[in-house]
Amino acid sequence: MTASLHSIASPQSEAERNVLGALLQDNAILWRLGDLAPDDFLDVELRLLWETLAITIREGELADPVTIAEGTGRRWSYEQLGQLVRECVAPANAARYAEIVRRGARQRRQRLALQQALVQLDAGEERWWEECVVAIQRAHHARRLYSHDDLVDAAQAARVERERLKAAGREFGLRSGIPTLDGTLDGIYGSRLYILGGRPGSYKSAFAWQIAAHAACSGRPAGYISLEMDEEELGDRVLRRAGDREVPRGIPIHVDRDSRTLDEILWSALELRERHRVEIVVVDHVQLIRHVGRGMSRFDALCEISGRLKGLAMRLGVPVLALSQLSREVEKDNRAPRLSDLRESGNLEQDADVVMFLWREEERRKGPGIDKHWLLLEKNRRGVARIRAIPLIVDGRTMHIRETVDR
Hints:
By secondary structure, the protein is of the alpha/beta class.
């Protein structure tokens, strides 16, 4: 007997049907749909069809209306599957449809959590609100166990996406504006925690803003959580970068000036990703994050902050760039910073995937005001561990940082 693929029209059902229609047209799209799971589908038949298509494609077999109709004993007819194909007029938007499906699943889990909390409230439970918050967090980030095949699929998906972007002439990772760094890191990308350290006056915030602006100007939204600069200072930075040119409008940089505690920052980052689809989150800077844990030393608090920032990057699936102050010993000795200068900042060195330092070297022999600026890559978990110092030119007027051409 043929099962029905008809469902009540809604944005959720239309997104589910479009995902399946796109996949029937182009099996390679599977590797671009991220961690879309069967339970994310609301419609039972569409859920089963998704499982069938995913298994078939992962086994290296062709999945189109003919093979699926025949291979499933006509559970779904060729005409029904063909209708899904005809309905999907934009297969290239499959990843966007998949995100709508995922969002709908998260909202269903959250509604269920709220309903359970209301039951606790009606029952007179004293801690119903605390349990409600925990339940919503758990619903928003439902845990998923990954099999060996899931890991292989994730790696293949990343490779396919790299090749697709390369063929389209697009860059895989976000650019910093420093060619040597971008070439070594292959850009800033993935579920990685990047640490940018430096002493005051080393232009950390200017460089972080430059990275966010590079991303936004290339059409990739950026989130900037500033604990140090107010609206006027941030706006002045935009004006200074524009120089004599007209200030551009509509650039997708989304700034949060209100978050102060660790929980507030984590929730802000989640909202930036969910609402604005940001592809990088900047936190400026770690030492200003307030931790509300009682009886905890500042060192232990920073350890928890760094660990949760790393977890945030993995949860969002986008890079988190966290700025950090360095030990005063760097200035006392007038030397290049090293990883040990992060030790007063909890586990930043251990939790980070990439550690970079900006160093403003004082040329004492040449007199005051004649300094050199350097960028050092001290840790890179997935590649070259260390490169020589990259000389920089810093324009103090426009706050623009670039690599010295003459090396």
